[in-house]
Amino acid sequence: MKLSKKTLATAAAVGIVLAGMPVMAEDIPSYNLEEIVIQAEGVTKSNADTTVNVKTVSPGKAATIPELLRSSAGIDVQQRASAGDNQDGTVKLRGFDARRYTVLLNGRQINSAGVMGGQYVDWTTIPLNTVEKIQIIKGAKSAAHGNTLGGVINIITRDKGVNGGEINILSGSNGRYDYLFNYSGSAGKLNFNVIANKTGADAYLRNNDYDAKQYGLRLNYDITKEDNISAGVNRTETKRGYIIANKLGVNYDSSYPVSDGENLSPSISNYTLNPGAYWEKDNTYYDFAYRHKTVSGFWQIDYWKNDEKRREVNYNAAGTAIDLDRTIVSDQSDNIGVSGQSKINGHTIGYGGEYKRLRYGYGYYDIRPAGSTDQIYPSQKIDLWGAYIDDSWKLDDRWSAYLGLRYDHLSASRDDSRATAMRDYDTDSLSPKLNLSFRNNAATNTFVSVNRLWRSPSMAEYYWWSQNYNSGTKAGATNPGYQQQLKPEKGISYETGVEQKISEKYNTKVTFFYQDINDYINFQHAYPYFCYNIDKAKVWGAEWENVFKLDDSNKLIFNYTNQHTEKVGATRTDAGMTDALDYRPLHKASLAYQYDAKPWQVRYSVNFTGQQKALYNNTVNTIGSYTIHNLAVVRELDKTRSISLYVDNIFDKRYVEQIGYPMPGRTYYVNLTQKI
User: Which end of the chain has the lower number of beta carbons within 10 A, N or C?
Assistant: First the structure.
């Protein structure tokens, strides 16, 4: 299935005639909200005023968030390692990496400021055993969330509930283990949830062992019927071995697959990571909210803070002594926000504002490599201000509308007197949003969305643009951004589609989307780190989602994504792709069978990823298509206990999601769940 621009334009025109987007939910607008398929529930018809709950996150197995999202339409997953990966491109939403969409945990952003100019989402910090629901807003439809192109992934954990909890114990291939504990309770007006988790895995790729501990506490207290406060703290302590290059020849270790290795960031000239090298990271999230209900709605004040510290250790080639031990600058960001909502004469008015400070801490060397003179200090700071107002209302019995306006402002400068390369930066924008929906009949809804796109440079892009601003050439390559002002990305996104209840057993939804972005920031986090604007980038395609309820116990879910990208104005001076974005497969499909009849649950999934282009050592390569089969069988032993067996990659497919880093073959897991 190949969609031309003409076909998409025609579909958009038809959608505009038919119209539509659903009315918004109270906290996170539901705009065509997708129920995430997390080993238990299928995609169901969107409900304009309902936040879709996930009844079972994963029967018996606490998979990573990227694994849980893998089968969803519009999501691409590319990992280097099966545990502990946290790159910009691990998960892509509608073709955009983590710099271009927002991830929320209980409504607070967890996109990290990163390390020395990096930015990423650390999926390992999310307490999987308490996830209640995951919401996705695809595209920049919501005025409540700014500085994003791909949209929003909001991961919500349990806040209130009956007294009780679970203990999960999992063991599997490659030394994989999970010991998970969570308990929710209440005492009068106070509700609480506590977690204590320990997870890990042996090295599948050379040296890439992984261990993590996690502790968390959430409190929710009803002061009065109108006033509520909630607070949370979540701490994750991670130790992960750097992937060490394993090439045929000198120092090759046949115990591990042939693979590339990882590098330090910030790098050290002429320095090599050796077996035993690792990083340790302590990450603590704090959040607080006060909410007041009014006669017609609510208003709320939020505050959150990230406290991240990271240590890196390397050994000499003989493995007899530590020759690097450093603590590097990391994430010390915080945010304060105000938001609210009121219902007035059939209109639901939303409003809000936020002030976000992206910051680093200081770093230092305990052991410095011989000959190194590198210093570690904060290089930059970014301040983001945002404000919005929106309105959702029913025009009549069949038409609904959403209109929003958002203002964003970014200012950036150096954060230490020694960071002389950092350039002052200031930019802002207004972004209008328009979404309409039309209820054709009791079984059919059509929708259309037109929204302005705007995104300012991320911490990584701002850092490397500043560092290379006065470098005309580097490593023998010409810098396309030499003494050129870096502009924010801006453009327009269009979306249209239809969802229909074909019968009592079959629901389907088709969505077409087209995003046209001017001044796209071309940047690869690879040497020589050139960061510059190109004329344009385009992302367009279609998503088709289907649920077949065969009977009360059996269900089939089929999702298909067709995705195209295009670059205009890129050059080959950075040896990158000039005609398209890399790691964006043209075709992606998933088919899942679900069986639920006590005491059994069975899940069989088939995930197909089509051919894709990828940058590797600054040259363009091709990753062939691959299909992965997974099986899960859960047996309820009694009302409080269940045992689960999982087989991932049943047919032992050899494949890569990122070139240079082979994924594991067939793996097995057994899990015991005890309710308490």
Answer: N
Q: What is the pTM of this model?
A: 0.89
Contact, 408 vs 494, CB < 8 A? no
- Residues whose CB falls within 8 Å of the CB of residue 439, separated by 6 or more in sequence, listed in order: 397, 398, 399, 400, 445
**CA 187/CA 94 separation, integer angstroms:** 43
d(CA 527, CA 475): 8
Element (H, E) at 6: helix 5-18
Tally of CB atoms within 10 A around 276: 15
Mean pLDDT in residue range 557-568: 95
Q: Residue 129: what pLDDT?
A: 78
Q: Looking at residue 516, what DSSP letter applies?
A: E
Write the pLDDT tens digit of every residue in 137-180.
888 899 999 999 998 888 887 766 668 999 999 999 999 999 99
Q: According to the 3-state scheme, what is the secondary structure of 631-674?
A: EEEEEECCCCEEEEEEEECCCCCCCEEECCEECCCCEEEEEEEE
Cα separations in angstroms, 223 against 69, 189, 242, 336, 444: 37, 7, 48, 22, 43
Q: Is 419 helix (H, G, I), strand (E, B) or coil?
A: coil
Question: CA torsion angle for 369, 375, 377, 378 (degrees, to 10)?
Answer: -100
Q: Which two tokens stand for residue 275?
A: 């077996």
DSSP state of 56: -
Is the separation of the CB atoms in 451 and 433 below 8 Å?
A: yes
Question: Between the ranges 102-111, 118-127, 383-392, 474-483, where is the mean pLDDT highest?
Answer: 383-392
Q: What percent of the chain has pLDDT over 90?
A: 67
CA distances from 517 to 56, 520, 566 (A): 38, 6, 10
pLDDT at 639 over 50: yes
Write the pLDDT tens digit of every residue in 83-97: 767 676 688 999 998
What is the SS3 assignment for 556? strand
Beta-strand runs (E) in 106-176: 108-109, 111-112, 120-121, 131-138, 151-157, 164-172
Alpha helices, DSSP H only, in 36-133? 65-69
State in Å, rounded, how far the first CA of the chain is from the last one. Answer: 50
Q: At 371, which amino acid appears?
A: G
For residues 73 and 37, what is the distance between their CA atoms, to the nearest angstrom? 10
Per residue in 315-366, pLDDT (tens digit) is 999 999 999 999 998 899 999 999 999 999 999 999 999 999 999 988 999 9
Q: Is the pLDDT of residue 500 over 90?
A: yes
Q: Tell me, what amino acid is at 30? A: S
For range 234-239, the mean pLDDT: 94
Q: How far apart are CA 674 and CA 451, in angstroms?
A: 47
Cβ burial 172-188 (10 Å sphere, 16+ → b, else e): bbbebebebbbbbeeee
Q: Radius of gyration over alpha carbons of the chain, in Å?
A: 25
Residue 78: which of 650, 615, 645 has the closest Cα? 615
